[in-house]
């Protein structure tokens, strides 16, 4: 890590994510205060931390129950972040959710604590909510932001 590199720790990640709270939902957007979806929130926090997008996502549908497709979100998370076991999840980690069995994992959130998350949902704004049993049952992967140069 160079002297000019930002310090990326859990506190910085959560602080950046909380800066998006109140941003309206907008499918495929990623502009703090203007519009974002769940992936846009993760992308926006990444940009704030590292200065650029990790990669540009392909177009995607808003259907959380979409089945039989490619695990684009999980594969991208694994390319750019470190997978962690569920028991190790912590503030600042990204959680990817599969809404129903057989569906593609298509929802993401940033943990503000091991049992709370910040996410964007259609019809609402970015918000911080408990990581309830409903969400815990749907976890498909947990990933940690890189802590060094990317």
TrEMBL record:
UniProt entry tagged with the keyword Lyase: no
Top-level taxonomic group: Bacteria
Species the sequence originates in: Hyphomicrobium sulfonivorans
NlpC/P60 domain segment(s): 7-146
Family annotation (Pfam families): NLPC_P60
PROSITE patterns (UniProt xref): NLPC_P60
Family to which the UniProt record says this protein belongs: Belongs to the peptidase C40 family.
Entry protein name: Gene Transfer Agent NlpC/P60 family peptidase, ORFG14
One GO BP annotation of this record: proteolysis
Keywords: Hydrolase, Protease, Thiol protease
């Amino acid at each position: 890590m160079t002297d000019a590199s930002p310090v990326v720790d859990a506190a910085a990640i959560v602080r950046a994510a909380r800066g998006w709270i109140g941003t309206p939902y907008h499918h495929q957007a990623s502009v703090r205060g203007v519009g974002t979806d769940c992936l846009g929130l993760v992308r926006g926090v990444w940009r704030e931390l590292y200065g650029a997008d990790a990669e540009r996502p392909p177009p995607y549908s808003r259907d959380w129950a979409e089945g039989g497709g490619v695990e684009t979100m999980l594969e991208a998370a694994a390319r750019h972040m470190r997978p962690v076991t569920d028991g190790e999840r912590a503030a600042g980690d990204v959680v990817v959710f599969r809404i129903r069995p057989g569906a593609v994992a298509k929802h993401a959130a940033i943990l503000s604590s091991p049992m709370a998350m910040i996410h964007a949902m259609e019809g609402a704004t970015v918000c911080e909510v408990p990581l309830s049993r409903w969400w815990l049952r749907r976890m498909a992967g947990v990933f940690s932001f890189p802590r060094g140069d990317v």
